[in-house]
Amino acid sequence: MGLRIIKRAIWHENPIFHQMLGVCSALAVTTRVENALIMSLAVTVVSMGTGAMVSLFKGLIPRKARLMVEMIFIATFVILFDQLLKAYYFSMSKQLGPYVGLIITNCIILGRAEAFAIKNRVGPSILDGLGNGIGYGMILLTVAIFRELLGAGTLMGHRLMPAGYEPARAILLAPGAFLIMGVIIWIVRGIQLGRARRSS
Amino acid sequence: MNRSPSTLYTITFVTLTALVSGVLLMGANHLLGSRIETNLLNDRYRSLFALAGVDVSGRGASDLKRLYSLRFAEERTRRGGARLRFSSTAQTITYIYPFSGMGFWGPIHGYIALDQTLSVIRGVVFTRQEETPGLGAEIVTEAFTKRFSGLKFTRDAASEKVLMKITKAGEATGPYEIDGITGATETTVRVNAMIGKTLKAAVSDRRGGRHGS
User: A30 to each of A3, A34, B80, B153, how far by Cα in Å?
Assistant: First the structure.
């Protein structure tokens, strides 16, 4: 049951290539692999925490104010993560700048709270948050690897491309990220549709 | 969740949730606040020592604080701003001017170090910026900041006109110009303006004799 929830969140209902959620931040932070890693971790932690809280209080949260309450949960987890980052990983916090704070507006978290946590028990809601965080992180890392390598000639800050390589700066711009993400979504959806056709 | 509660219940629930969240965040801030403050202060010290050409890697917070109070003195500029005077063990002096302004996405803060005659740039460091990662945010990289090192910003010590200019990438010509960042023209223009303004303050100090000999 637990594994099924995680697999569904990563593959069948991936927040980026299936639900098209969280795309803005995916474009913003994927210029460096290191940034993408920390951002993925932050989204995973916040998504799990919010899922747990929404599920725990689902019987008490008034329908009219549910979005407001969910946003309070999300904001609380995001600010806590940001404070921890500033306290223990200061250089990373400096690099990510305002993007950690912007997780509050990441549609994946509110989307999963509304679509899953508000209707399910705490355990599955935490697993759903974990799966969505991993699914989001996988796409982020894939895009970041291509962008950092082609756009800066480095990977995790280490120079990998030959000395004569002229970095393709356009890849670091948002259209470059759109292009890479589009290709990834095309490949993954192609695999999924091929499998679906064969099984039917 | 399926219930249709009264307005009073809704207001009470939301208020309580916000209060609990606020208390939780206050607690976290209480626990982590001093550590964050220390990190911010250490980051400032490290930036200043790096500008002054002193290697402080491996130094702890208290050591940095002690060294800072030993080597740096805070002064006022003729225009009423702040600057720092760094005295090295070899008795050479470096003046460090803070600068700030609006970048493309948010505020940019940094320091510029000048030699004791206030004629040559020793280095530049950016301590805060919110520019586009991979583009404008590249201002913090050594590849960009080292372009300032050793640059004269006026024709001679008697000249008052600031000639230093950050141009579009690849367009720098002459000894007073340096290349900006590719694909970050807006950031380049704004950084050029804030550094230019700071250098004018330094020229004013030089005219007023507020420098070492």
Answer: 28, 9, 42, 37
